[in-house]
Design a protein that fits this description.
alpha+beta, Nucleotidyltransferase, domain 5, globular
Length: 117
């Protein structure tokens, strides 16, 4: 089993658990160059808010988009947008990625703004 398949297996297990809880989820995806985050409905059918390093607001302020500082900014932006939309509690879906580095920075930044998970 290669690295990608292992990550997908972990993400499937997490998503099934979150579906059983019927919780709104904060999904995180990362590539070497960018970070993406979106808050989806409990059934996963609808995206409620989203943020990424590709947003015009962040592209102006960031020098690099694939580092921890960029992930923190995406976390702050997704938390602000979620709170503005009336969402204050989510389940964190890290898509099978290990909880360290950029994923951890995004989660901690979202918690600092006031998003609960």
């Amino acid at each position: 089993m290669n690295k990608r398949l292992s990550r997908l297996r972990r993400s499937k297990r997490t998503r099934l658990k979150i579906r059983d809880l019927e919780a709104t989820r904060l999904c995180v995806y990362k590539t070497p160059r960018h970070m993406y985050a979106q808050v989806t409905s409990a059934d996963g059918a609808k995206t409620l808010v989203c943020a990424s390093t590709l947003d015009k607001e962040l592209r102006k302020t960031l020098k690099q988009t694939g580092n921890v500082d960029a992930a923190k900014e995406v976390g702050k932006l997704i938390a602000k947008r979620a709170l503005d939309a009336g969402i204050n509690q989510v389940a964190f879906d890290r898509s099978g990625f290990p909880y360290h580095g950029r994923v951890k920075a995004l989660a901690e930044a979202a918690r600092e703004i006031g998003l609960e998970f």
